[in-house]
Amino acid sequence: MTNSELRNKLEQAQRLLSDVYHWASTPMSNGLQISPLQTNAEIASCMSVADGCICDALDELSGME
Fold first, then answer.
1. Within the chain, which residues score under 50 in pLDDT?
2. In angstroms, what CA-CA distances link 54 with 15, 22, 38, 43?
3. Which of 11, 12, 31, 44 has most Cβ atoms within 10 angstroms of its Cβ?
4. How many C-beta atoms lie closer than 10 Å to residue 21's C-beta?
5. Phi, psi values for residue 39, rounded to 5°
6. What pTM, to 2 d.p., does this model score?
7. d(Cα 41, Cα 21) in Å, to the nearest integer?
8. Helices in 1-65 by DSSP H: which ranges?
9. Which of 24, 14, 26 is nearest to 52 (CA)?
């Protein structure tokens, strides 16, 4: 995989994480939430950590170019 392809994959992963983070941060009623006003803070937190790891990987990749 080229650096460009790797960067594209990492950026795609960030977009997917963002979708999940938004869902987890939005008060709604679904199978994983107990009340309509409850959010999935733990899932949102995990998405934030994963995004930070991707940012670190992108920084490392930039240093190789």
1. none
2. 11, 17, 28, 17
3. 44
4. 20
5. -110, 175
6. 0.78
7. 9
8. 3-25, 41-64
9. 14
Tokens 């999935």, residue?
Answer: 40
In this structure, how many other beta carbons lie within 10 angstroms of the beta carbon of residue 47?
A: 22
Nearest to 31 by CA among 46, 47, 45, 43: 43
Q: What's the distance, CA 28 to chain centroid?
A: 19
Asked if 7 contacts 15 with a C-beta cutoff of 8 angstroms, the reply is no
Helix (H, G, I), strand (E, B) or coil at 1: coil
Q: What is the pLDDT of residues 23-38, one digit of tens each?
A: 888 876 555 555 655 6
